[in-house]
Specification:
Chain A: One of its GO terms (biological process) is copper ion homeostasis. The complex is a heterodimer of chains A (795) and B (56). Chain A folds into six domains: 53 residues, no CATH class; 88 residues, Alpha-Beta Plaits; 189 residues, no CATH class; 99 residues, Calcium-transporting ATPase, cytoplasmic transduction domain A; 153 residues, HAD superfamily/HAD-like (Rossmann fold, 3-Layer(aba) Sandwich), CATH 3.40.50.1000; 105 residues, Calcium-transporting ATPase, cytoplasmic domain N. In chain A, 43% of the residues lie in helices and 18% in strands. Chain A has 28 helices and 28 strands. Chain A has a seven-stranded mixed β-sheet. In chain A, helix 9 packs antiparallel against helix 10. Chain A starts with a helix and ends with a helix. In chain B, 54% of the residues lie in helices and 0% in strands. The relative contact order of chain B is 0.07. The chains are: A alpha+beta (795), B mainly alpha (56). At the A-B interface, helix 5, strand 5, helix 9 and helix 10 of A face helix 1 and helix 2 of B.
């Protein structure tokens, strides 16, 4: 017995999961399941066992997996997946969620040892992406994916491919632009120094030479690096919007023209270094603001949740069919753990549908023959056959995406502080510039023009343009470190404005699938064994949970096994008659119990007690009531209200809404918005997709960021759920930091303006002021953000 | 002092060569994945297989 318990605590050599059996064993290595053992065998045969030397237990558990890749031999599907194909070679990239350690990297780059038809394979670790080139005459795409599957790296293939989308994003050559601006900036600085330090009469020849060189360096900076500011300013003017790009473009233009004129007329050295520095810093700011999470997609919709193809039965033959071609009347086969992609009628088989992602209902639902099953449900148990009654795009679930919230442009987003300020800033700036022009022009026109241009140069809102990107990127990396991934920097400001928080229940505040089981009553070891034996024959999720709760038990002979759908199980185990099931089954009448789901047990007609399944709330739910001081809290659940009594701890009774359909959730959010509330929605499933989109800030909560999450503004890892109040406060701090840094940059502008309005701005002053203000802003924002994060205990 | 013209010409030319090299590196995708090579270099070579399969 001791040996047995010792073994029980041991882990699987392949995946590191806890192992309940010593059945699977080769080469003194133990495995948790057949799948893990098979992977090991494949690797051992090919002498690739170094895989296990780099990291302990690098594999992924294979307990639940189905090998179904027939659809990959359909030419229409292949065409959409591959990057390139000629007569011989196919190039393809896959997203493989399991890539997580150096072993993965090593093994995946050894693919040609497993199959010589693979010519080339390269892993991009951060993107979790594998690019391969292979000879498709020797190895089909299906064969390649099966090979990957066999070594434990199943690629995620979906209609809305993450990789394809990232690759297709337009390239703006920002890095190249920064390189050119930096290159010119460095050279111009070098050439400007002699002028600043003063040239002797003997060296005056150089002055001209350096001046023209400076102008020459200015040309690529304006025409290549800085061109984006001109086009953006022009477009905004056409749309009658004054944004920060206008004064920036004006500043760049004035700097360049004045430099060229001064050099040409020999009146001065010009401001070439200020010009290059300005463009360089602006572009760096832009670069910093672009934060991309390669492995996360914020734009997912139902297409990335649904399979690429379904098995369709035609004349008794099963054939894979691309989802897009699925039509009303088709008969499809859906196996264990597969998703039903369209509304359909159940024709054959025992349907036990897990709808947690669609409706929020936590416990799988039993469906009888002839019943309509809505798209998005996941079959658990045996294979079922269904007849499609609506095309994929018009099913109950997917029609949510036809709603106006998805088609209409987002105009409920508030304008950012930067946009708001730069409008006024531009007007004031122009007023001062024209004022100083008019003031001096009456007596001295050249001085007037000098003052006019100097104002535009000095007040060019470089520091202002940089304060937001640098603060936000620092804030984003703080959030990122705490497993909270924001779509872009504007989301931080959005978050600071929130005054209402709406939460979904299943999967958001409860932990998906794992319920706490408790047995009310006393069970002997033998009785536990009896219950385990009874339940181990059933595929019902509650039976499985009971089995895993009771742990590993010895099998006993079973007879007269009978499972009554929706009620329970009766069976003769050994010599005892066991009945396990609902109150209806045991007592003959049903009771409505609130709080938890119960499964009752009786042995030989003697009542033993019941299992209670409590939903487990996420860690940090205790922080939620604290939020209600500053925020209006609501709960929106697709589930029934049997947990209402437990949830009263966290939410006001009138703020809890149960049995909400996706459309109702969305409407409730828009009702709140009509009351001038800024709503943050936390959800996890497809049923929340509409509400997430409608809200001012949609946050998808997930236990694994690589899993499917509905389209949202931010993705929160479930482990950081407890930090939600800190996140909200930190977002407010960040906005405060932006305000302060704006004041600092304004101070610099005022100092510069006092020189500028007199018309006597020396190039040296401008050359010192600009980088100085930039350096101040960058260091202030990063330090202040760091301290704010420390204060909120997020650093 | 006319040598300055020549020297500055040289320095600008060299800087342009470096800029061109950077453009080339960027275009040929050398900067696309800056993380994976750092892991790849730490992996030992093939021949150090576990003793069990040392027939190779």
């Amino acid at each position: 017995m001791t040996a047995h318990t010792l073994l029980e605590k041991e882990t699987c050599y392949h995946c590191g999961d806890e192992r309940h059996t010593d059945e699977y064993q080769i080469d003194d290595k133990h495995f948790c399941c057949q799948g893990c053992q098979t992977v090991y065998q494949v690797l051992a045969q090919n002498q690739l066992c170094s895989y296990y030397n780099f990291n302990a237990h690098p594999g992924e558990t294979r307990k639940r997996s189905d090998k179904r890749f027939e659809y990959l031999s359909e030419p229409t599907i292949i065409k959409d997946l591959i990057d390139y194909r000629d007569e011989q070679i196919t190039v393809v990239s896959f997203y493989i969620p399991h890539i997580h350690c150096s072993s993965c990297l090593w093994l995946l780059e050894q693919l040609n040892k497993l199959n010589p038809a693979v010519h080339y394979c390269r892993v991009d670790f951060l993107k979790k992406q594998l690019s391969m080139r292979f000879d498709h005459r020797k190895l089909s795409l299906q064969g390649l994916v099966e090979l990957l599957y066999d070594i434990g790296y199943e690629p995620l293939i979906s209609l809305q491919d993450v990789i394809k989308k990232n690759n297709s994003s337009p390239k703006d050559n920002l890095v190249q632009k920064i390189a050119v601006a930096g290159f010119c900036f460095g050279n111009v600085m070098l050439l400007s120094f002699p002028e600043y330090f003063g040239l002797t009469a003997f060296e005056q020849n150089f002055k001209h030479f350096f001046g023209w060189l400076n102008v020459a360096f200015g040309v690529p900076v304006v025409v290549y690096s800085g061109w984006g500011y001109f086009t953006s300013a022009y477009q905004n003017l056409r749309n009658k919007v004054l944004n920060i790009d206008f004064p920036l473009a004006l500043g760049i233009a004035v700097l360049f023209i004045r430099t060229a004129v001064e050099v040409a007329t020999g009146t001065g050295a010009g401001f070439a270094d200020t010009l290059c520095g300005l463009v360089f810093f602006l572009l760096v700011g832009k670069f910093v603001q672009q934060k991309t999470y390669h492995h996360i997609s914020f734009e997912r919709d139902y297409r990335s949740f649904f399979p690429v193809a379904v098995q369709v039965v035609k004349n008794g033959v099963e054939k894979p069919l691309p989802l897009a071609q699925l039509q009303t009347g088709h008969r499809m086969v859906v196996r264990n753990n597969e998703i039903i992609p369209a509304d359909a009628i159940l024709l054959k088989g025992e349907a036990m549908i897990d709808l947690s992602f669609v409706t929020g209902e936590a416990i799988p639902v039993h469906k009888t023959l002839g019943e309509v099953i809505y798209a998005g449900g996941r079959q658990t148990g045996q294979a079922i056959e269904l007849e499609v009654i609506k095309p994929v795009s018009q099913s109950y679930l997917t029609q949510l995406w036809n709603n106006e919230a998805f088609t209409a442009k987002q105009d409920n987003r508030v304008r950012t502080f930067n946009e708001e300020v730069s409008k006024h800033f531009t007007i004031i700036l122009l007023a001062i510039a024209i004022g100083s022009l008019l003031f001096w022009a009456l007596e001295d026109l050249p001085r007037g023009i000098a003052a006019f241009t100097a104002v535009l140069i000095v007040a060019c809102p470089c520091a202002l343009a940089l304060s937001t990107p640098f603060t936000m990127s620092a804030a984003l990396s703080v959030f990122d470190k705490n497993l909270f991934y924001l779509k872009n920097t504007a989301v931080v400001e959005q978050m600071a404005r929130i005054d209402t928080i709406v939460m979904d229940k299943t999967g958001t505040i409860t932990i998906g699938n794992s319920s706490n089981i408790q047995f009310n009553g006393v069970l002997s070891a033998h009785q536990q064994q009896l219950i385990w034996n009874t339940c181990s024959n059933s595929n019902h999720p509650l039976s499985r949970m009971i089995c895993s709760y009771l742990g590993n038990q010895k099998p006993l002979p079973i007879s007269n096994y009978n499972e009554l759908a929706g009620k329970g199980i009766e069976a003769n185990v050994d010599d005892d008659q066991m009945i396990i099931g609902s109150a209806d089954m045991i007592f003959g009448y049903s009771t409505k119990i609130t709080g938890a789901t119960r499964v009752h047990v009786s042995q030989n007609g003697l009542y033993l007690g019941y299992f209670a399944f409590h939903h487990q709330y996420r860690e940090g739910m205790d922080n939620i009531p604290k939020l209600s001081d500053n925020y209006d809290m609501y709960l929106l659940s697709g589930d029934q209200d049997h947990e209402a009594t437990e949830l009263v701890k966290y939410f006001r009774p009138d703020a809890m809404h149960f049995e909400q359909l996706p459309q109702q959730k969305m409407d409730l959010i828009s009702d709140l918005q009509h009351q001038q509330k800024k709503v943050m929605m936390l959800g996890d499933g497809l049923n929340d997709a509409g509400a997430l989109k409608q809200s001012d800030l949609g946050v998808a909560v997930t236990d694994n960021v690589n899993n499917f999450t509905p389209g949202s503004d931010a993705i929160l890892d479930g482990r950081s759920f407890s930090k939600l109040p800190q996140f909200l406060r930190f977002a407010k701090d960040t906005v405060k930091i932006i305000h302060i840094s704006f004041l600092i940059s304004l101070t610099y502008n005022v100092i510069g303006l006092t020189y500028a309005v007199t018309g006597q701005l020396s190039p040296l002053t401008a050359a010192v002021l600009m980088p100085l203000s930039t350096a101040t802003i960058i260091s202030f924002t990063s330090l202040a953000t760091h301290f704010a994060a420390r204060k909120r205990r997020l650093a | 002092m006319s040598i300055i013209y020549f020297l500055i010409g040289c320095s600008v030319l060299m800087a342009l060569v470096f800029l061109g090299a950077f453009f080339w590196a960027q275009k040929s995708g050398q900067n696309d994945d800056l993380y994976t090579p750092s892991m790849r270099i730490l992996l030992d070579d093939e021949d150090e297989l576990p003793s069990r399969t040392d027939k190779k």
